[in-house]
Amino acid sequence: METKEWEELHNRLRTFYSEFLNVFYDSNTAKSKNAKEKSLERIYDMIGKSIDSLPDIPEVNLLVYHEENPSEMKRSVILEDLRKPRYFEADMERIIQAIHLQTVSANSKI
């Protein structure tokens, strides 16, 4: 990839990561069950859109840990699994770390 493409990709990842953390914070501080559910739906949508828009190359894959094999990171084609609340809540911290790692990885390519 050209330097300009890496810069654009890094900016997209950084923006996504920032928005993602804001929505995640909103979902954790929401007072009502309805507000919490709306925040979680926004998170699911953000993850799906981000995964769909990223190039399919190893350096910039948005990865999450697979529930059945936490030591192995896989590309997030397991979005349907993320819709299961027990999976989503249990692995949210790992998802955030994976996004952060990929952001750092993209930045190091610039």
What does this structure look like?
The chain has 110 residues and is mostly helical. The chain has one domain (3-108). 69% of the residues lie in helices and 10% in strands. Helix 1 (3-29) runs antiparallel to helix 2 and helix 1 (3-29) runs antiparallel to helix 4 (85-108). The protein starts with a helix and ends with a helix. The radius of gyration is 14 Å and the shape is elongated. Mean pLDDT is 58; it is low at 56-91. It is built from 4 helices and 2 strands. The chain has a two-stranded antiparallel sheet with strand order 1-2. Strand 1 and strand 2 form a beta hairpin. The longest helix has 27 residues, at 3-29.
Give the arrangement of secondary structure elements.
Elements: H1 3-29, H2 33-53, E1 63-66, E2 69-75, H3 79-82, H4 85-108
Antiparallel strand pairs: 1-2
Helix pairs in contact: 1-2, 1-4
Tell me the strand percentage band: 5-15%
Low-pLDDT runs of 5+ residues are 56-91
Number of helices: 4
> What is the typical, i.e. mean, pLDDT?
58
State the shape. Answer: elongated
With strands numbered from the N-terminus, the spatial order across the biggest sheet is 1-2
- Estimate the helix proportion, in percent: 55-70%
**In this structure, how is the largest beta sheet organized?**
2 strands, antiparallel
Please provide the ordered H/E string of secondary-structure elements. HHEEHH
Which structural class do the helices and strands define? mainly alpha
How many beta-strand runs? 2
